Amino acid sequence: MHARVTHFRILPGKLDEFTLAIHALIPLAREQPGFRGLLVLRSDAAGKQETQVISLWNSADDLKHSDRNLYFYQAISRVLVCSEGFPSIREQEVLVDEFVA
After folding, report:
1. Which H or E element spans position 2?
2. Side-chain half-sphere exposure of 99, counting CA atoms within 13 A
3. What does the alpha-carbon distance between residue 63 and residue 34 come to, in Å, rounded to a whole number?
4. Which residues contact 90 (CB under 8 A, 6 or more apart)?
5. Is the dihedral of CA 24, 69, 5, 29 positive or negative?
6. pLDDT per residue over 42-96, tens digit each?
7. pTM of the predicted structure, to 2 decimals
8. How far apart are CA 32 and CA 62, in angstroms?
């Protein structure tokens, strides 16, 4: 399994809008080949809201394929209006996963 980890700094007062945008994108994500799941984590660092969006994919090829279609760019454009600057994006291999059904 592979993951895309995207770090966003949320603009003041935009957390609810950001969350709504993420919820609206979930149906699009589910249509992507190899999509396994999504985690969105929030923290407050020095008074700033930050999020880590972790999307999980069956394989590196599935993850890369998602970069090459409109889904990824729709997702980024919808949440950028709530964010400070462009997010940092990393692709990582998942070494261990355990989710209770």
Report:
1. strand 2-10
2. 8
3. 8
4. 4, 5, 6
5. positive
6. 998 777 899 999 999 999 999 999 888 776 777 778 889 999 999 999 999 999 9
7. 0.89
8. 8
